[in-house]
Specification:
It holds the Pfam family Fn3-like. Keywords: Glycosidase, Hydrolase, Signal. InterPro entries: Cellulose_Degrad_GH3, Fn3-like, GH, Glyco_hydro_3_AS, Glyco_hydro_3_C, Glyco_hydro_3_C_sf, Glyco_hydro_3_N, Glyco_hydro_3_N_sf. It is built from 22 helices and 27 strands. By secondary structure, it is α/β, with parallel strands linked by helices. The protein has an eight-stranded parallel beta sheet with strand order 9-6-5-4-3-2-1-10. A hairpin with a 5-residue loop joins strand 24 and strand 25. The protein starts with about 30 loop residues before the first helix and ends with a strand. It binds beta-D-glucopyranose. Beta-D-glucopyranose (BGC) binds next to loops. The site of beta-D-glucopyranose has 7 residues, from loops.
Length: about 775
């Protein structure tokens, strides 16, 4: 089935708030490129063309000698998961020495939040609301990856998600469209730089196209069913923003969309991506996705799956043999046309051209002999930047009686299975990062204290005592170590040091493998072993500071009552321990804001700030049975989107408008004055939301339309002005037309999505 919404002329404009005009695409000199690629295509045999569509990695299925033979016969187009210059050079040498047409390979990897220096996970980066910080991450990640010889990354991941049960929420930028789009675009711009051909740039491949973040129930690889308004209004703009920024690649999602797997979705990959969005780069299937079309129930057998995928617009096939196995015969029989093969091959050659590989296949490798002697050398890391960025991602959720910052002279009991785990603090998809080079919280606190005070440490609990979960986490690769002492013994040791301390710091949450691909959870609480540790610590009566490490919003309702302070640190990367210590001791002031809603329980899910109104809203002041609520739970979140505390206090003036109305082509400005009324310097994020209370379709109760991160000294004030124009008011109406409808609008400005200053204006 090709046309899902045949009658809908779907246009998707990235709202003005997403920033300036799209950057020039990464494919400069299109005429020269097309001429070059055409003459190359003319020389290629069918098998060589099919070879270009093949993307594989070295491993038991494809050992190095087998790949050498494939290279000799032009049977492979790109390699992923090879990450050192020596190994990459060896394969590129084989292309140059053994193959007929010497078409360079490109090399790709999941450089999602760093290559060797690991930065906070993307969900943490989103919590910084700091575009410049994200650009620093992109630039350094690209630099380190290109310095390792890589040409492409499978990033950014911009799947908007309302599903904390889904483990991959950690890899994206949260629940909001605008924030995800701006972060994704910043990643593409900073990674690709002026051109992906430059020595230290990397071509990006935005993923997972499309809607992977909306898998039903948050269950990995599940299907997605979504209204076109939500799809194009909320989930598609981040992909579009990344493509407008020039991303050369698109990785196609594993899920189906309204019954049609993305990998078999010609409407998505041709009509939308190519025809409407004018995408000229490559589409890549996700790992093994082509053969999965059989299990999806849309292909009868492997041959059928290949036919459907190729015809639907999948250029490169990741990690399976199917394209090379079945395409020759499919072409011979006429089921796949030569034009279709040429199109896909052209896209691959186009990106190789854009990567500069035809000019210099070694452009990211330099001359032989220049390879670093030690790929993991300490001087290849960018620790300072990693720490500075991580500092900005920490979200202070609670701070009763200012228990934080800690005093360096005190006796501190540091406990928890995540306090000294070098692997976990890096988070999932930690690329070529080396766990031994990451700074744990224990080390970070020691570094900060430099011998002052007393720091006691006990592990206190395993990540989990559930043998099934332990087994799951250690399947495929060892991920969690299980202490053989009994849970009681571990807890006793923690309680013993807690009794001696002035304050307890408990580093708890998830291991990195719990927030990863294939890591969906039906229970998003801190695992029971750790909850019992917290109960025992609480019973000591000592002040309790919880340092959370996790890759999704957790249900921490119980801990929110127990703890005196809670600091959300996500997985904060190579310099995580130092950065957390910066915040705990007050050397840095927390400034992160939640990019996702924290629910009170898993039963509330999905719970997100920009939901639609209902006909029977629940009013907690006048509760009524026949209104929209759970009779056994509160409707609202534990911590709302945009929320985060500081060690200083900020106040907001009422909103002033430059005009009470504007009309087509016009705009108005909305301003607030923010004052730091506390005693120390600090940064915060001023957020502007809009709501259209009467429209032809129910509109979200509020939607983020702009934000500004500002830094103020104690006593300092700053006026922050947001512009609002027609684009900010537009939405997809029932006929899928992108319209701004006249009427009254609510405008809210706040330091989170709930406590806002409100006003109204009219659009005529
Ligand atoms: C993931 C992708 C990833 C790819 C290559 C897949 O399993 O879904 O996000 O880029 O593997 O590592």
């Amino acid at each position: 089935m090709k046309w899902i919404y045949p009658l809908l002329a779907i246009t998707i404009a990235v709202p003005a708030a997403f920033g300036a005009e799209p950057q020039a695409p990464a494919f400069g000199g299109e005429q020269a490129r097309d001429a070059y690629v055409t003459q190359l295509l003319d020389k290629m045999t069918l098998d060589e063309k099919i070879g270009q569509l093949r993307l594989i990695s070295v491993g038991p299925d494809n050992p190095k000698p087998a790949i050498r033979e494939m290279i000799r016969h032009g049977q492979v187009g790109a390699i992923f998961n090879t990450v050192t210059r020596q190994d990459i050079r060896a394969m590129q040498d084989q292309v140059m020495q053994l193959s007929r047409l010497k078409i360079p390979l490109f090399f790709a990897y999941d450089v999602v939040h760093g290559q060797r220096t690991i930065f906070p996970i993307p969900l943490g980066l989103a919590a910084s609301w700091d575009i410049d910080a994200v650009k620093t991450v992109g630039r350094i990640s690209a630099y380190e990856a290109a310095d390792d010889g890589l040409n492409m990354t499978w990033a950014p991941m911009v799947d908007v998600s309302h599903e904390p049960r889904w483990g991959r929420m950690s890899e994206g930028f949260g629940e909001d469209t605008l924030l995800s789009a701006m972060m994704g675009r910043a990643m593409v711009e900073s990674m690709q730089g002026k051109s992906p051909a430059d020595r230290y740039s990397l071509m990006t491949s935005v993923k997972h196209f499309a809607l992977y973040g909306a898998v039903e129930g948050g269950r990995e690889y599940n299907s997605v069913d979504m209204s076109p308004q939500r799809m194009f209004g909320e989930y598609m703009p981040p992909y579009k923003a990344a493509l407008d920024a020039g991303s050369g690649g698109v990785m196609v999602a594993l899920n189906s969309i309204n019954g049609v797997p993305a990998t078999a979705n010609a409407w998505l990959l041709k009509d939308i991506l190519r025809d409407q969005w004018k995408f000229k780069g490559i589409t890549i299937s996700d790992h093994g996705a082509i053969k999965e079309l059989i299990k999806h129930g849309v292909a009868a057998d492997p041959r059928d799956a290949v036919r459907i995928a190729l015809k639907s617009g999948i250029d490169m096939s990741m990690s399976d043999q199917y394209y090379s196995q079945y395409l020759p015969e499919l072409v011979k029989s006429g089921a796949v046309t030569m034009d279709e093969i040429n199109d896909a091959t052209r896209h691959v050659l186009n990106v190789k051209y854009a990567m500069g590989l035809f000019r210099d296949p070694y452009s990211h490798l330099g001359p032989a002999g220049s390879d670093p002697a030690d790929t993991n050398a300490e001087n290849r890391l960018h620790r300072r930047q990693a720490r500075e960025v991580a500092d900005k991602t920490m979200v202070l959720l609670k701070n009763r009686l200012d228990v934080l910052p800690l005093k360096k002279q005190e006796t501190i009991a540091l406990v928890g299975p995540l306090a000294d785990s070098q692997r976990d603090i890096m988070g999932s998809w930690s690329a070529a990062g080396v766990a031994g080079q990451s700074v744990t919280l224990l080390q970070g606190m020691r570094n900060a204290l430099q011998g002052q005070g007393t720091l006691l440490y006990a592990k206190g609990a395993n990540i989990t005592d559930n043998p099934l979960v332990q087994k799951f986490l250690n399947s495929y690769q060892p991920s969690v170590t299980v202490d053989r002492q009994s849970p009681q013994q571990l807890r006793d040791q923690a309680v013993a040091i807690a009794r001696k301390a002035d304050v307890i710091v408990a580093a708890v949450g998830e291991s990195q493998g719990m927030a990863h691909e294939a890591s969906s959870r039906s229970d998003i609480r801190i695992p029971e072993a750790q909850r019992r540790l917290l109960d025992a610590l609480k019973a000591t009566g000592k002040p309790l500071v919880i340092v959370l490490m996790n890759g999704r919003p957790l249900d921490i309702s119980q801990q929110a009552e127990q703890a005196d302070a809670i600091l959300e640190t996500w997985f904060s990367g190579t310099e995580g321990g130092n950065a957390i210590a910066d915040i705990l001791f007050g050397d840095k002031n927390p400034s992160g804001k939640l990019p996702v809603t924290f629910p009170r329980s898993v039963g509330q899910l999905p719970l997100y700030y920009n939901h639609l109104p209902t006909g029977r809203p629940y009013d907690y002041l006048h509760p009524d049975k026949y209104t929209s609520h759970y009779y056994d739970a509160i409707n609202g979140p534990l911590y709302p989107f945009g929320y985060g505390l500081s060690y200083t206090r900020f106040t907001l003036s009422p909103v002033t408008l430059s005009a009470s109305h504007f009309s087509q082509g016009g705009e108005l400005q909305a301003s607030v004055t923010v004052t730091n009324t506390g005693k120390r310097q600090g940064a915060t994020v001023v957020q502007m939301y809009l709501n259209d209370p009467v429209a032809s379709i129910s509109r979200p109760v509020e939607e983020l339309k702009g934000f500004r991160r500002i830094d103020l000294n104690a006593g300092e004030s700053q006026k922050v002005t947001f512009r609002v124009n027609e684009d900010d008011l537009k939405f997809l109406d029932p006929q899928m037309k992108y319209v701004a409808e006249p009427g009254v609008f609510n405008l809210m400005i706040g330091l989170d999505s709930v406590r806002t200053q409100k006003t109204q204006f009219t659009y005529q």
